[in-house]
Amino acid sequence: xxxxxxAKQGLTLPINLALGLGAYTTKLYFGSEQVAVNVMxxxxxxxxxxxxxxxxxxxxxxxxxxxxxxDVVYGSGGWAGPVLRxxxxxxxxxxxxxxxxxxAITADSQQANFQQADGxxxxxxxxxxxxxxxxxxxxxxxxxxxxxxxxxxxVADTPKGIKAFRTYLHQFPEHDxxxxxxxxxxxxxxxxxxxxxxxxxxEYVPQADMDLAAREQEPLNQGAFIIGGxxxxxPKQTLQVxxxxxxxxxxLGCQLAGFDFCAAPPLDAQHVNSFFSNAIIDSGCSFLxxxxxxxxxxxxxxxxxxxxxxxxxxxxTTAFQQGQDYHPKAxxxxxxxxxxxxxxxxxxxxxxxxxxxxxYWQNHAQRPNNWMFMVMxxxxxxPDQTLCGLPLINNYHCVFDRSQQGLGVIHCLPKPS
Length: 417
Description:
By secondary structure, the chain is an alpha+beta fold. It has 10 helices and 28 strands. It is globular and about 70 Å long. The protein has helices spanning 3-9, 135-139, 159-169, 180-186, 212-217, 272-275, 292-305, 307-321, 357-360, 390-393, and strands at 11-16, 25-30, 35-42, 48-51, 64-73, 78-91, 96-106, 108-109, 119-122, 130-133, 174-176, 193-197, 222-227, 237-240, 243-244, 247-249, 251-256, 262-263, 279-281, 288-290, 339-344, 350-355, 361-362, 372-373, 375-377, 386-388, 397-401, 409-413.
């Protein structure tokens, strides 16, 4: 399929929650052997990285090595490894293939970085896909090396080890690696637009002893990643992307149904040059992570409605943190209010997006009858930024159109029935 055909018809890749548990995965095909790799789709990062145990470089006749190393730290994980290049295919039937595509393999990593998936596909922009040219280090080895594969470093598989290695790499020349989606678009293979249709924030498991195949067959665990295609003829609300690092947006504030509007503070000044705005749209985040003032407002409003509401959210959060199930007797999401987030639109007009209670309360979450509360407070050491994860995305057909209005826009449409 040509880029023009993809632009008109769209290329739809099935996605699923069963492997990512709290993130959607799709398949990519790597190298001469076309190894199928399940990668998590993440609009909050830009790196394509796959597990070394899943992909064996020595079997790939298209493999090209480089002198680049990458080190990525996530909220609760991280990895380090070499940058390689090879053939990557999006879809067998349509023959959507990119030769000489860059990606990283996780030579050193913390366990469960990708849950039960094989890697991650970062869909954001090039600013987040940094690598370091370690040629000078390679030349000091005896004998001298000409690439970072095989991996010449030994990095402790701990958060401190991964972070320390990232600091070590800062002494070497920095280089932005072209993200995979951008690379496909730059080569005229796909148009510069994709969309997500999702239904859940956390894997849906309504029965005990469900195997992977059964969980994958659950409709609520399924969704669609659509590349190109005509914009559906449905009403849309459009957010302005205000910076092309993450999908940065400007959050004006939030409002719980029945209460006054709460304005969102701007991003704190010390983080403007690294985080760029006070909100991002992040498909790799299972939660809606509210800036601390907005979270306090949300909790205060819930307590005014019914003191038990706030108690339930705290009990669910504690159970999650302790790895325990939460089985409340009196929880009925229909009795809870909508949460509306208001963003800056194309011409500065406010755009109101709704997070209904069935999106911020999830039942049968990874286990039968387990409830999870999908709203979190701002994380320690994190800037004043709201992470608009799957609880918001799930209520819409979200179109990330990077070709419009300079930095791009995000159209939010009603989901198709």
